[in-house]
């Protein structure tokens, strides 16, 4: 008798999701609690585990379908039990229509899958539509790439990194030869465009990207957004990290990064300017006596903002451990709706991608966001002398309906003072 696999509860106010990827095909053996499908919600990706050990007997939805919480996604039978009618659905699920139907360049396309040299594991080779498109676009062999996702699955970033490495290691003069020696699948699917020919590709936005777009536009339409800037001399923080990083890592098992300093600085500044850590609700202003920091981290499907709760009460080590754990979960696609819930203030670090300056957008219903940027040596004047210092631009975007310009500038100056003199963080100045 087959057991139903249902869409699990996905979090507060989330009633439906999109089938992102089937991790197993009909007839595959599954273990108890082994993920068989990945769902995408407005906020996170969620893997659906098998409720029993057995064989995937039936798949009821295709990749890209919308499913409600509680709906039956699939059925798992005991032993070798399968459901023949599910074969067509399974084929459609694992080979969705559109660009994803294109065969992947894996060497001998006529050889059986199990016989192909260098074939990766089943989990790693079940590619999402986005990864499939990236593989075809960059003409790389997915079986030769080590996946960084959960269970070794490939992500789009893995494919792009492999393509860049291939380009780096391939002499420019060999370009024509490489094009000529492309696999049969590559040649048939990506025929070189003739002179003057231009092509387009239409890709449906993911549920998460649609939600991000809606919320950002909502913030622009609702809040009175304004951004104030300052720069900060990072010398003291850099010196402190260089002096204590080895001892810190030895004691706490985690690297001492920059984010801990900025979270601490924000917590200190918010005491002087509480409106920055508040929100508008109807005709009332809600102030918080706690600081829950939404820290923007990069995930395979976009920027996500898990929340470090009670950050104002945490030590440097606790902050760094929490952020590192969120970063790993984001990379693995393992963040939950609970991880993203709440947040009273956001810190976004565009500097890790090389950004010099930006105007971040607030994350509703929050009223402010601090943008960090890259550190670079610049000439500045100190005590009448021109010297070179490692400088970073800071940007505070805020809702002018709640936060006055004087308050915003004061807050940013307090952050600057704490970063340039970290002793303030210890004696609460």
List its traits:
globular, 19 strands, seven-stranded mixed beta sheet, 429 residues, 2 domains, Chloramphenicol Acetyltransferase, OB fold (Dihydrolipoamide Acetyltransferase, E2P), 13 helices, alpha+beta
List the helices and strands and how they pair.
Blueprint lengths: L2 E4 L9 E7 L6 E2 L4 E6 L4 E5 L4 E6 L6 E3 L3 E6 L8 H9 L27 H4 L3 H10 L17 H14 L5 H6 L3 H6 L17 H16 L2 E9 L1 H18 L6 H14 L6 E3 L2 E3 L6 E3 L1 E3 L2 E3 L2 E2 L7 H17 L4 H4 L4 E5 L18 E5 L2 E8 L2 E15 L5 H16 L2 H5 L2
Parallel strand pairs: 12-16, 16-17
Antiparallel strand pairs: 1-8, 2-4, 2-7, 3-6, 4-5, 6-8, 9-19, 10-11, 12-15, 13-14, 17-19, 18-19
Account of the protein in words:
The protein is of the alpha+beta class and 429 residues long. 32% of the residues lie in helices and 23% in strands. Strands 9, 12, 15, 16, 17, 18 and 19 form a seven-stranded mixed sheet that branches. A four-stranded antiparallel sheet has the order 1-8-6-3. A four-stranded antiparallel sheet has the order 5-4-2-7, with no helix packed on it. Strand 4 (35-40) and strand 5 form a beta hairpin. Helix 3 runs parallel beside helix 4 (156-169) and helix 9 (259-272) crosses helix 12 (405-420). The longest helix has 18 residues, at 235-252. The model is unreliable at 84-124 and 172-191 (pLDDT under 50).
